[in-house]
Amino acid sequence: MTTRYTVAPHEMELVAVRAQGAGGQNVNKVSSAIHLRFDVRASGLPEVLKNRLLALHDRRVTRDGVIIIKAQEYRTQEQNRAAALERLEALIASVRTTRKVRVPTRPTRASQRRRLENKAQCSEVKAGRGRVSD
């Protein structure tokens, strides 16, 4: 079951800013980078996903529960907008799957016996390494 949750456009804020780094004169006059801000608590996502997103140890999630993504790898605003939206979807998809609960198991009786036999054998070997008395 792969339910895909879509984020409504009014729930996120997309702002065009100037990109950092090399790029010549173009970088100083064109706002091609995109800042995406998404407030997790105010979103329409299910509570389970909200809690998992807020529990993430990710530098993109602030203490206030806002996800901030900056996309600036492309030269055009449209490509950077698409890249930011893809990253947001990937982040939501990463918390969508639930891990199976680990059921603790016990070692078998035979494995316990083998461990103790091996331990006794190592003990004999080490005891034989002592000083030889005359």
TrEMBL record:
SUPFAM superfamilies with a match to the protein in the record: Release factor
Keywords recorded for this protein, A-Z: Hydrolase
The Prokaryotic-type class I peptide chain release factors domain, residue ranges: 18-34
Swiss-Prot/TrEMBL GO biological process terms: rescue of stalled ribosome
Pfam families linked to this entry: RF-1 (PF00472)
Ranges where the record places region Disordered: 102-134
GO MF, one annotated term: peptidyl-tRNA hydrolase activity
NCBIfam families: PRK09256.1
Stated family: Belongs to the prokaryotic/mitochondrial release factor family.
Protein name (record): Aminoacyl-tRNA hydrolase
Species: Candidimonas nitroreducens
Lineage, highest ranks first: Bacteria, Pseudomonadati, Pseudomonadota, Betaproteobacteria, Burkholderiales
